[in-house]
Write a structure and sequence with these properties.
The chain is α/β, with parallel strands linked by helices. It contains 16 helices and 16 strands. It folds into 2 domains: about 110 residues, Urease, subunit C, domain 1 (Roll); about 280 residues, TIM Barrel. The strands form 2 sheets. Strands 1, 2, 3, 4, 5, 14, 15 and 16 form an 8-stranded mixed β-sheet that branches. Strands 6-7-8-9-10-11-12-13 form an 8-stranded parallel β-sheet. The structure holds zinc ion.
Length: about 400
């Protein structure tokens, strides 16, 4: 891969390396009128052009940023991007005033996604996912976690994980796979039967995923059932994550921290005790404001978590039923207006902290020694990401030092 020199960057805004929590999240590293030198996909130098030139070897490719600003590529640490079907009609029914029960009677809800995902061939699922990944890339996502969980049978769960695995090689976004077999109990199956299936399939799919996740919620999986699945995952090298506290607090956070979960995700309903628990732990609180917006439910108490010193990340939860967005920029805006986050915190939580939620410590920062994943924005001020909302500010996407997408004017 040729080396790359990016010149004429008006402003770089980046989280400070290694700053993951506390008041320091509000102070970014800001550089003005600088250049970046990238070699072998890694950032070698950042600073005034004269200083950066001293590090340059050979004849790098030159990219003129023409006064654009730069931020790290977004790291979306929670998504359900692989699924069959489309639930736009369901959204329209809901918007027109139809109740959840009426929509379910018409075949809507997660059941419809499960059916469509089971019926789709691997190639069809891959094609749908590829189109969505292209949209995510345009929006500046350079690393993304994707969960299984719309198969609810061993065969389809495996198919979903294989799709993620194959897409890793076929497109530029770095993908991380999570097994979410325990997402819901499939129709025509008892909880006990399905739990057995999930536990039995973990050793077989362990090579296709990095993490194991469970939907811990009333009517889905209890804390004890979730613990069983996560422990089985740990036995087979899958680190735990947990969907918890979305509608009810049934004790998922405490259990997840005890198991050393990498993250607990959702947290719309969160007690002060759990805020304190999280602030004392290394488990990341992953906040999903797209869900609160889309379902019109309360937002997670992100301000409380940040003030208590907890680790917080922001993610899309991109999925057809409760958060049909791939825009981290829109989430940053929601984080500021709906959850009291500072723009700088929102940026840190969407980049370096998202990377922490995926245990990637060379991502999410623009500084020497980090992987060269970055975005050139069509503005000279990173604050526009949250301020000018509903707009895509990404002009150029760079992944591992290569230009992988550019707005064509
Ligand atoms: Zn989710």
């Amino acid at each position: 891969m040729p080396n790359l020199l990016i010149q004429n960057i008006s402003q770089i805004a980046s989280p400070k390396p290694g700053v993951y929590r506390g008041p320091e999240l509000r102070s970014l590293n800001i550089y003005e009128n600088v250049a970046i030198y990238i070699s072998d996909g890694m950032i070698k130098a950042v600073g005034p052009i004269s200083e950066v030139m001293e590090q340059v070897e050979g004849h790098p490719v030159i990219l003129d940023a023409e006064g654009k600003s730069a931020v790290p590529g977004f790291v979306d640490s929670h998504s359900h991007l692989v699924f069959g079907g489309n639930r736009a009609d369901e959204f329209a029914m809901r918007s027109a005033g139809m109740s959840y029960e009426e929509i379910a009677e018409k075949g809507g809800g997660i059941v419809s996604t499960v059916e469509a995902t089971r019926n789709a061939s691997k190639e069809e699922l891959k094609n749908l996912a590829r189109i969505r990944l292209q949209k995510a890339l345009k929006q500046g996502i350079t690393t993304m976690e994707i969960k299984s969980g719309y198969g609810l049978d061993p065969e389809t769960e495996r198919k979903m994980l294989e799709v993620i695995h194959e897409l890793k090689e076929e497109q530029p976004i770095e993908l991380i796979a999570t097994f979410l077999g325990a997402h819901a109990v499939p129709k025509h199956s008892s909880k006990e039967e399905y739990m057995e299936e999930v536990l039995a399939v973990i050793p077989e799919i362990a090579g296709l995923a990095e993490y194991c996740d469970v939907f811990c919620e009333k009517g889905y999986f209890t804390v004890e059932e979730a613990r069983k699945v996560l422990e089985k995952g740990i036995e087979h090298g899958l680190k735990p994550k947990l969907h918890t506290n979305q509608f009810n607090d049934i004790g998922g956070v405490e259990m997840a921290i005890e198991l050393g979960a990498v993250s607990v995700d959702h947290l719309e309903v969160l007690s002060d005790e759990d805020v304190q628990r999280l602030s004392r732990s290394e488990t990341i609180a992953t906040i999903l404001p797209g869900v609160s917006y889309f379902l019109n439910i309360p937002y997670s108490p992100a301000r409380k978590l940040l003030d208590a010193g907890a680790l917080v990340s922001l993610a899309t939860d991109f999925n057809p039923g409760s958060s049909m967005t791939i825009s981290m920029q829109l989430l940053m805006s929601m984080a500021c207006t709906k959850m009291g986050m500072a723009v700088e915190e929102a940026l840190c939580c969407s980049t370096q902290n998202g990377a922490k939620a995926l245990e990637k410590n060379k991502l999410g920062v623009i500084a020497p020694g980090f992987q060269a994943d970055m975005l050139l924005l069509d503005t000279d001020n990173y604050k526009d990401l949250a301020y000018f909302f509903g707009e895509n500010h990404v002009h150029t996407v760079i992944k591992k030092g290569a230009k992988v997408w550019e707005l064509r004017g």
